[in-house]
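Exam revision sheet. Question 4 asks you to relate a sequence to its structure. Input first:
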Amino acid sequence: MTKAPATEEAVPTVSRVNECFCRMCGSGRLKDSKIVGPVRLRSCCDCGFAGADLTEWESPYASADYYAGVDGGKAIASGWRLPYIEHRVKRIQRWIERGRAVDLGAGWGGMVECLMRAGFEAHGVEESQVVLETVSPLLPAGTWHCKGIEPFLAQSSAEFQVVTLYHVMEHVRDPRRIANGIERITTPGSVVVVEIPFLFGGKARLRGRRWEHLVPHHINFFSLASLARLFPAERWALLDIERKPHFAHPQGIRLRDGWHKAMATLGLYDNICLTWRRLP
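Answer key, structure tokens:
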């Protein structure tokens, strides 16, 4: 395992972040985002990142489990072996067919289960105790890690050939720390996949404040330029950008999936999924 290199740029740490600084690039050139939601967003004029001011934000799940009140059995019955999860794994296998994989923010474990069926040694990281009680008996011992993502990245002694984060980075307080932790647990040739809601896509522009991803627990909205700061080109090769019309695309309905894909190609997309390979 290699040690992540120190961050080159003088970027404020989360404890120092306020509305005067961009937490991606450190720029002081910020303005209020034109898209107004339940959380006030400030946009960086230099890297395009839009984020909540963490000095005035508190997670709505600070004192509650994210999955509290959800029926775990129903969640697994309706959430495992779905076409969009199979699609995710097939796209990963374009770049790497086997190896040790970890899904960070694994939710109900659908991605972990699918990776296992595809031949990966798959692990899931999810801090929810509600999920733990349901999922861990269904998966091999040692593959489910009930802890936060940052502690896992700091403490893991394993090396991973695949790291996935599907709709995770919009939730975390310090994306740069997550990216540095990912570098710590990967080696040259490892593949990282990040999927996020895209504030700069056509659907967000069309719907404005009615866009479905403007919710109190989404505090980071990345531009392509700000993502390039998390995974810089001198250490990470960008392999693929997939523009997706919605979270659960594809759904296995050919005509509907084809229509949605065509709309995404024309600019009406909700999410982007990026894949990088770590360079030597």
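Marking note for examiners. The CA atoms of residues 13 and 23 lie 7 Å apart.
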